[in-house]
Design a protein that fits this description.
single chain, alpha/beta, 55% helix
Length: 152
């Protein structure tokens, strides 16, 4: 079974209509919910998704519903949220060595700790040095468009 670490740049597309690569994101969500793939994320990811939706002007009620859905996905075992405490030391290393923001470093650390390929559309996580760090651990960086390009 495939395992993916997912960051907020992907998960926000599960809820924000009209996003580029929305179809691919929804297909991934369907695979997560059908347990066809294992999905991991830093436990802060649902909060990042909420912040992104609020920033885009989504109504508070929709944001609350989104948070509840992500929480239920975790509670029922579809989305494995890795506690920040387990990621903190590795994230600090990634902040220093790759010059990443905290949220990006935590997402990347979740990929490392879960031994999962990183699915992202975040430009900071698509940088060559980040890709090389993942490859050094035998992992890949995958964009949503690439995820299904060969599986049509």
């Amino acid at each position: 079974m495939k395992s993916y670490a997912i960051d907020s740049s992907v998960a926000v597309k599960w809820f924000k209509r009209g996003e580029p690569l929305e179809r691919e994101a929804l297909k991934l969500r369907g695979e997560v919910l059908s347990s066809a793939v294992k999905a991991y994320a830093c436990e802060l990811m649902p909060l990042e998704v909420c912040r992104g939706l609020l920033k885009a002007g989504y109504p508070r009620k929709k944001v609350d519903e989104t948070y509840q859905i992500l929480r239920e996905m975790s509670d029922f075992g579809f989305l494995r949220l890795v506690p920040v405490g387990e990621l903190r030391d590795r994230a600090e290393e990634l902040i220093a060595s790759l010059n990443l923001y905290v949220a990006d470093a935590a997402s990347l650390a979740a990929a490392f700790s879960s031994h999962a390929d990183m699915v992202t559309e975040d430009r900071h996580l698509l940088k060559q040095d980040v890709r090389a760090a993942l490859e050094g651990e035998g992992l890949r960086t995958i964009r949503l468009g690439e995820l299904y390009a060969n599986r049509r």
